[in-house]
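Any chance you'd type out a single protein's sequence alongside its tokenized fold?
>
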Amino acid sequence: MFAKRIGIDLGTANVLVYERGRGVVLDEPAVVAITERDNTVIAVGDEARGMIGRHPGSIQVIRPMRDGVIADYLITEAMLRYFITRVVGRFNPIRPEVMICVPVGVTGVERRAVRDAAEAAGARRPAHLIPEPLAAAIGAEIPVGSARGHMVVDIGGGRTEAAVISMFGIVASDSVRVAGDRFDDAIAQHIKRRHNLLIGERTAEEVKIAIGAAIPDLENDPIAQVRGRDQITGLPRTISVRSSEVTHALQDHLSVVVQTVRRVLEQTPPELASDVIDRGIVLTGGGGLLRRLDELIRHETGVPVHVAEEPLTCIAKGAGQALDYIEVIERALPTEEESLIGEGR
């Protein structure tokens, strides 16, 4: 019996698992429900997300990942064990070979925490790590092994990461803790200030998906009906929100995303920058699906931009496929010791 080979996109909002030969076999929210009394895990993934805003005081619903890194080690380990067991099987004695994604800007300590959590959850030792932009590029079928520059911008739940990649190595990169979750929060805060209506994170996300846009469309300004609790009366109320309002609420965060892309382009060597202009920037991650975001980045940078074919699954798919290139990837990336030296400078 051969060990299963799986890639894991351990995101702030969702966890995706890709199995070689089967594709993406699991896609569930990175949410865990535990009891207040003894921290017993009672639900993970979809079941736990369904409890958000609806659970009694005796239960906590937690997102153990924050801004792309582990915020609660023990709960992350329990979540990973649950997902790995779902894919591999409860009684399979052979540990799977695992490639797990980490943000490009994480510290050596944060990398070790992810590796330790994966190994404690059932992955074969050593668990392999890959920077998210590199995994996204591989999953988007970009030829990153060639001696040419390719630029990827991944906008997930907790972080936006931009990187220029050549020969499996990251030449220039930047990472900011502004992405989908901050977009949702900005929408919720805007509706609270403008309409005196309190809404939850799920409702804010639904508004973003339904009518959110990076550039306003004055000719076609769609409207969404939003339900929440009136801040003054405390009673349920439904309001109408225009797409242009959502665009206005997102402007500050979108500006941060654009500046991140610009900084990476400024760090890129001229020859590789020329390649990026020829091939364009590829957007991945759920945030890349925001309407007209590609147009905004194209307008601000002058570089062609297009969204990957399957932006939500690129990272998990790329992590699984990267197991075929472990030696080449590890040669191209800095060792933990080199990373720690860089962090100390």
